[in-house]
From TrEMBL:
GO annotation, cellular component aspect: bacterial-type flagellum basal body, distal rod, P ring; outer membrane-bounded periplasmic space
Function: Assembles around the rod to form the L-ring and probably protects the motor/basal body from shearing forces during rotation.
Protein name: Flagellar P-ring protein
Protein localization: Bacterial flagellum basal body
Domain of life per record: Bacteria
GO biological process: bacterial-type flagellum-dependent cell motility
Length: 303
């Protein structure tokens, strides 16, 4: 902070300068494709020191360096944080993340990435979700659009386009036609589970075989109630704390052995799982066990 003020012409050398409204932050951004000098882009600001909030803060001029050490953009502006903090003498409540925020269009691009896109004779389309069926459909749709063989599926995640064969004026014109081609992607059957919030999301292609499930659990309970033993007034002795612990184990009755019938549609699968009558977090453990038994025909993703 002292160096910043000195660059602005304010000399604070030798002074005890300890401001409490200054935060050390880390500024990051993603350079968009085909970015030109003078174009704006969003930046993310995160506190890396002991700052408790960035609400109402302003980012001073900050150069953004890439991995090659060159400065590609300069950022500054008002920080928009998405959290709030309320604090009293005996308690403190924080909602959201007040130590991180964004500056919309807060950076101006100063350097462009050299790339001769107009000189390409061929390019490759990279599928976000690799799949042989989807790549084959993309190849067929593009060839049908141009009326000739200009697309070739190389693997499950790559389709090569012959720009010269499209007879377009430029690669940009060719991509303008290709991006409007409608292709229905092949979806995988997936079950996505978020253990922190207990959220379960199932795709329409999820199937389940006939299986029997039994679910229960144990509850451990430990209570501490120490006793204080002290001598009578004006008598010799000292106060002694006698520990006293009550420990117990309770076994929940669970759902017993329940049958989940074979489901050929998502509604049948959901109805069978709901028939178990368990909480969402218990349902996550049941789905894990069903997947381990081989009865759940879907990709199981835990986050």
């Amino acid at each position: 902070m002292t160096n910043i003020l000195e660059r602005l012409g304010v000399n604070v050398t030798g002074e005890e300068f300890r401001p409490k409204n200054v935060a050390a932050v880390l500024v990051t951004a993603s350079l968009p494709p085909f970015a030109r000098a003078g174009s704006p882009m969003d930046v993310t600001v995160s506190a890396i020191g002991d700052a408790t909030s960035l609400l109402g803060g302003t980012l001073i001029m900050t150069p953004l360096n890439a991995a090659d050490g060159e400065i590609y953009a300069v950022a500054q502006g008002t920080i928009i944080a998405g959290g709030v903090t309320a604090e009293g003498q005996g308690a403190r409540v924080t909602q959201g993340v007040p130590t991180a925020g964004v500056v919309p269009s807060g950076a101006i691009i100063e350097r462009e990435v050299d790339f001769d896109f107009a000189g390409l004779t061929s390019l490759r389309l990279a599928l976000r979700t690799p799949d042989f069926t989807t790549a084959a459909r993309i190849e067929q749709a593009i060839n049908a659009t141009f009326g000739r063989s200009v697309a070739l599926m190389l693997d499950a995640g790559t389709v090569q386009i012959d720009i010269v064969g499209t007879q377009a004026r430029s690669p940009a014109h060719a991509l303008g036609q290709i991006e409007n081609v409608l292709v229905e992607p092949e979806r995988r059957a997936r079950v996505v589970v978020d253990q922190r919030s207990g959220t379960i999301v199932m795709g329409d292609d999820v199937r389940i075989s006939r299986v029997a499930v039994s679910q229960g659990g144990l509850t451990l309970r430990i209570e501490e109630a120490p006793l204080i033993s002290q001598p009578n007034p004006f008598s010799p002795g000292e106060t002694v704390v006698v520990p006293r612990t009550n420990a117990g184990i309770e076994e929940e009755p669970g759902i017993g052995l329940a049958e989940i019938r074979e489901g050929t549609s998502l509604s049948e699968v959901v109805a069978g799982l709901n028939a178990l009558g368990v909480a969402p977090r218990d349902m996550i453990d049941i789905l894990k066990s069903i997947k381990a038994s081989g009865a759940l025909h879907a990709e199981f993703i835990v986050r």
